[in-house]
Specification:
The protein is an alpha/beta fold and 357 residues long. The chain has a single domain, classed as Alpha-Beta Barrel (TIM Barrel). The protein is 47% helix and 12% strand. The protein is built from 16 helices and 12 strands. It has an 8-stranded parallel sheet with strand order 4-11-10-9-8-7-6-5. The chain has a two-stranded antiparallel ribbon with strand order 1-12. Helix 14 crosses helix 15. It is globular and about 65 Å long. Bound molecules: flavin mononucleotide. Flavin mononucleotide binds next to helix 1, strand 7 and helix 14.
Length: 357
């Protein structure tokens, strides 16, 4: 791997965090879709608030709450501190954690510690390795797979599908040919489950079907309504090249807002699961714009096993309020459980949502 390729990867990972913290990267014309739903109020909860149990399972392991810290970073010097804090928080709440793309760790060994640190500070929770679809499409060697999994003692491998991000990225890799074929080889070969996730454009039912058939055990929808990664890369592009002349003005606006809202992905994949009883063990993660415990609760009622967040976790970490923020979100969730008469997460999952008038 050339030094310049490796330096670009390091610059990119660093600038992603900076841009997500300081720039406007929200969708202009799209929300998550959660705002269209509400729970039916239960005037007779018949439960005690203080006994509400937030624990649940994910991939056969008991976890403290139906929430996960989404994949974000690693692969440059400051990333070690961020990952250490994320790991400490995951351990504190007994919730799963994903690290950012580990492509840099495959390119050279210089910042592998920035990934490995999470296992040190989160010894007992599920930790997920992460690699992008273009790397899978190229084919990973056994040695590369071992580096990804062993650095973290990973409980699974997250493969991120980011076609729109790569399309906008100044140095993007848009060769996704043979991805599904290569993915099937990996899911058959590795000893841990594979999670397929988008990064903000969502996963449709038909894409989910192909992923499940390729051996994927968990789908993280990462739908539209949170960060537009097209916008993040557009900012990097215009900083490098000035005005973006790659697309016409009306197309640019539509492409920056491209994607399936998170709640829509959940509805469609839930329907798919009902039509295919053989997929009942496929677990769904709701992410893309999650910003409260109410969003977590609605995610569960729409069929998700848990919800996950990146942007608001990063912002709270930056402000030194990450534990407080998660505590507040879990209290939001408890409030919804109380008002719907759900003493457990399983009971909440069986509540139906009504479409707001
Ligand atoms: C700074 C930052 C870096 C990210 N890097 C990765 C990555 O390397 N791999 C990945 O799968 N997702 C990455 N993501 C995407 C998130 O995991 C998530 O799918 C996406 O941001 C949507 O969730 P959100 O709306 O809660 O942010 C990153 C997110 C942030 C904020």
């Amino acid at each position: 791997m050339s030094d310049s390729t490796s330096n670009i990867t390091i610059e990119r990972k660093h600038s992603h965090v900076e841009i997500c913290l300081h720039d406007d990267i929200a969708f202009n014309s799209k929300n998550t879709g959660f705002e269209k739903f509400e729970f039916e109020h239960n005037a007779l909860p018949e439960i005690c608030f203080s006994n509400i149990d937030l624990s649940t399972t994910f991939l056969d392991k008991r976890i403290g709450a139906p929430f996960m810290i989404s994949s974000m970073t690693g692969g440059y010097s400051e990333a070690a501190t961020l990952n250490r804090h994320l790991a400490e928080t995951a351990e504190h709440f007994s919730i799963p954690l994903g690290v950012g793309s580990m492509r840099q760790a495959l390119e050279n060994s210089s910042y592998r510690d920035s990934f490995a640190i999470v296992r040190k500070y989160a010894p007992s929770v599920q930790i997920f390795a992460n690699i992008g679809a273009p790397e899978i499409a190229k084919g990973l060697t056994d040695l590369e797979i071992n580096i990804l999994l062993e650095l973290l003692e990973a409980d699974g491998l997250i493969v991120h599908l980011n076609a729109a991000q790569e399309l906008f990225q100044p140095e993007g890799n848009t060769d996704f040919k043979h991805f599904l074929q290569q993915l099937s080889i990996i899911t058959a070969k590795i000893p841990v489950p594979v999670i397929a996730k988008e990064v903000g454009c969502g996963i449709s039912a038909s894409a989910a079907l192909k992923l499940i058939e390729a051996g994927v055990k968990v789908i993280d929808v990462a739908g539209a309504g949170g960060i537009s990664w097209q916008k993040v890369e557009e900012i990097r592009y215009t900083r490098q090249f000035g005005h973006d002349t790659r697309f016409s003005t009306p197309a640019l606006e539509e492409l920056l807002n491209w994607g399936i809202p998170t709640a829509q992905c959940l509805l469609d994949i839930n329907t798919l699961k009902k039509e295919h009883p053989e997929f009942r063990n496929t677990e769904i993660i709701a992410s893309g714009g999650i910003q409260s415990g109410i969003d977590i609760a609605k995610s569960l009622a729409l069929g998700a096993q848990l919800a996950a967040s990146a942007k608001y976790v990063l912002k709270a970490l930056h402000q030194g309020t990450l534990e407080e923020t998660i505590k507040t979100w879990l209290n939001d969730l408890r409030a919804v459980m109380f008002l719907t008469g759900s003493a457990s997460i399983e009971q909440l999952r069986n509540k139906s949502l009504i479409i707001k008038q």
